[in-house]
Records
---
Amino acid sequence: MIKRLTIAIDGPVGSGKSTIAKLVAKKLGYLYIDTGAMYRCVALKAKKEDIPWTDEERLTDIARNSSIKLENTVEDGEPKCLVYLDGEDVSAAIREQDIGQGASVVGKISGVRRALVPLQREMAAAGGTVMEGRDIGSVVLPSADLKIFLNASVQERTRRRHLELTEKGEMISIEEVIREVTARDEQDSTRADSPLVKTNDAVEVDTTGMSIPEVVEKIISLAHERLDKS
Ligand code: DC
């Protein structure tokens, strides 16, 4: 039987994780799991219910008692991940800029992480998975077959994030995006529980100046190396 790998992709905001992870999963015929979408769902639900993102108890409650489902699909040849929160399609709503910041705040709450991590492990249990986030190689799937740490310069990540938001019609200045990127970098890397780190066994890929197909090819070739060895 052909072995199906478990691939963990971690990295900061704007490193290209989602775009790259989706394409790698599609090429390999693997399941793509966006763990950031799950933290975003918790932040979105809290916002809808007027609960502050810092209310640890109620946020933990939301994470424990909500139904969060991810579904892989292809639209116009492009791989997409649909996100359902309590049965409602929130794929677009969770991508709003403030929800990204909220997810970063919510991600600091250990109770929230303790509720979401087992769901993530369950989703990856069958193998043939590309999972992206901040703590995948370090905490969620420490024995993943291949760990990638995607990175890019702050300038490049800010440029990408600005383009992503303005393409969706959000009116936002580059200065505001720099503030968002640096605030999330700081918050995600310095939190006490499961901070963003590059593990020793992860391969770091600096995507500054690399095209999307180049990054995808690099990861696919690393995956093939792992498959050849197994
Ligand atoms: O990858 P993203 O931008 O959709 O993630 C949104 C936020 O969610 C991120 O800034 C921190 C949090 N997050 C996390 O704490 N752990 C993960 N595995 C994924 C995301």
---
Amino acid sequence: MSNDDHSIIFSTDQRCGRIVINRPKALNALSGEMCHEMNQHLMAWAHDDAISHVVISAVEGKAFCAGGDVRALIPMLKENHDHAKAYFETEYQLDLIINTYPKPVISVANGLTMGGGAGVLMNAAYQVITDRMDFAMPETAIGLFPDVAASVFLRRAPEPVASFLGITGWRIGAGDMKALGILSPDTGFVVDSTAIDHVITALVGLENPDAAAIKSALTSVMITPDEDPQNTPVLNALDWIKTHFSKPDLPAIRASLAHENGQGDDNSMAEACLKAIDARAPLSMAVTHYLMTAPKYEGLSVAAALDWDNTMACRITLRPDFIEGVRALLIDKDNAPEWHPASIDDVTPEMLDDIFSETDMITLDYPQGYNPQNR
Ligand code: QUE
């Protein structure tokens, strides 16, 4: 594996395997090669008695990780869809390895964390975030859906917050992540961003990194952002979100929002949601609504969620919206995607059945030579 551009820095320090994402110009977006390298190092460290735990962080800057490097993926996908399949498989394998790792993995995210970055954070045994957290699952904007086991971690929030977050790509901070339960109370920690170097040093030096040891190492820098109502705008709007996003389908959600908009009161949230729904890929939003509400996807293991994500990502990227969304938002930046179908009213049950079909599901395999702990 070449790592000539040092997009990821691997090292060992005391008994810790360290992974530092180092691609700040692309907001630390993960290429297939970067995921592959992480998989290789994680597999080697899994069987290395000198390593007791792994800490994943990013170089100082705005982002922990903005997601997958979907921009680079598009030319390859256009040439051959198998490239997209291989990319998603490698990315989800990374999430699966992180989630089933035989030693504690601690992800430390200080800044923008979206999509694939959320996978690296949320599937770790321990999640350390900061007051600078800016978290979103924005994939409906590019013709995908919240993947990387978002059907597990978004669905930890009260229903129907997972739908709301996934459909609109709403950005939330540490306060809401914690207050909504997306950040697990047992394995998630919020620390002061100004102490991030100290935090990483303390985590790297841990002898036996269980929840109690991590907590005591971080006690002096832990903060409780959820106690300030200013820090929990989504929690504060919970009843409002329930009113609108509990509706049975996207057209009903949109109608409910449109009905409120223009009724006086404070319409800023209704307006922002309508704007999001009118800009994002209709099929992606319908897929997201189903994935975040269907009883069938409740209580999945991370491994089962990733099997679905992998299967569905392969299917949805055979359709035109992903290429078009990445073109419009990230390549040409005209912000004028032409979606197929173009309207939420034109998403058919057949389209959804095709994406969610249980026939020909792909089971995600571990890379050869990796023994999972608890699939
Ligand atoms: C939705 C997304 C992504 C996004 C924007 C969206 C995403 C992603 C990136 C991204 C950002 C900066 C980069 C880059 C990619 O943006 O997944 O290569 O330099 O990775 O609206 O899902």
---
Amino acid sequence: MSQTVTKNKYETTIGLEIHVELLTNSKMFCGCKVEFGGEENTRVCPVCLGMPGSLPVANKKAIEYTIKAGLALDCDIASFTQFHRKNYFYPDMPKDYQISQFDKPFCLDGHLDVDTEGRHRKIRINRVHLEEDTGKMLHQSKTGRIADASYSLVDFNRAGTPLMEIVTEPDIETPGEARAFMQKLRRLVLSLGVSDCNMEEGSMRCDANVSLRIKGEKELGVKTEVKNMNSFRALQRALEYEVLRQEKLLNEGERVLQETRHWDADKNITTTLRSKEEAHDYRYLTDPDLVPMEIPDEWIEEIRNTLPELPNARKERFISEYELSDYDAGLLSATQVIGDYFESVLKIFNKPKTVANWIMGDLSMHLNAEGKEMEESPIKPKSLAGLLELIDKGTISGKMAKDIFQEMYETGGDADTIVKEKGISQISDESSLLAIIEEVIEANESSIEDFKSGKQQVVGFLVGQVMKATKGQANPQVVNKLLKEALAKH
Ligand code: ADP
Ligand code: MG
Ligand code: ZN
């Protein structure tokens, strides 16, 4: 909606900072277990509690996962890299600094392309770095919001969880594009197996920076940063709201304040969280407890070899190997599960276009209607292949297949069994069809003359009559062929 309004005068600029908790066994700098929730402060030690004198040791697996994500995003991997201390005070971080990365992150200069809103968009990735997550504040009030709380508790179970941060360049131009980008990024990270990317549990979180500028203007406008969106929908809506809010301010001759804002999903508005007018001074300094690291090329190559086939590569392969259209290949490679499903059916029934049509047509329609994902499909690849084989052999017609499909979807049964149980099969047997055809011709004698005088449409009418006589079970192709032969002989 915002786009139609801003189209005339302003253009929108969006940049995202995405935090992803990595699925390692232990925390970033200590041996405590990484897990969601649990009894408060049960997975803690002097390191992740920030006790003076405790010493951090970097988690190699977390570094491997970060490099893996960087490679998947087409980044350059740094040969020399370092951890820094980012100094600020917050009660969920008792060291008063967060170990993060500053000017020597693991990964730089990548991109992730999205096809959305009818355009191909290359979104550049500025960097991917690694840091530690903070603890969690538990504000003691009904709403859980700090403003209503008389006191707060802190749970440090999350403190020290390896946190990967992916920062985009300000290349995103609409809220819908931001959402599409996040969806694609989530699928990519999931396929790498480095995080469970659960947005509700906060293992994937996104801060969205957004600004407006008058069309054609070179310099970017003043941005606000919106936090606390825990779904794709919330991200898009928060940005739409923010675009409208900024536009209104600018139209009224006011200025947009540089600040961090909070998305309130109940009220559908953003509210001020804190001002950023004065630049933060985090006094970054290299962490003297952690040695700088040189990443050997051989290790990078080793990690590269563990990458699964990435969505874009798979799409290209679907186009060249199966001769699918760009559109079909895009949909079928959108997630790992859909692509795997498609290829599992092909192993048994190797007609890519037909399989593609059934997956994107009937199967997707049924799943969408119930809000289900492909992995929940009651029809397994083997069963779909079985159905398609029956059509291919002429045992059932395309029309019958739709009904059988419905039944398969509801019962989870396979096509063969349903066809046998219900006795629904197509009559392709020529001698039984010929008998019916003769009856139909006799009942419509004038059609013989019509046919001979070149009125082809009479064939269609007669095929219809045969179908009616067989309650739709005759194989229309066979009927068509036999009818023409029979009419010519009369
Ligand atoms: P900060 O120092 O405020 O965190 P950065 O320059 O590090 O700002 O950028 C953070 C994010 O904000 C990046 O994703 C970047 O692309 C985006 N960004 C920067 N400037 C703008 C702007 N004017 N409008 C929208 N997004 C922006
Ligand atoms: Mg920021
Ligand atoms: Zn610990």
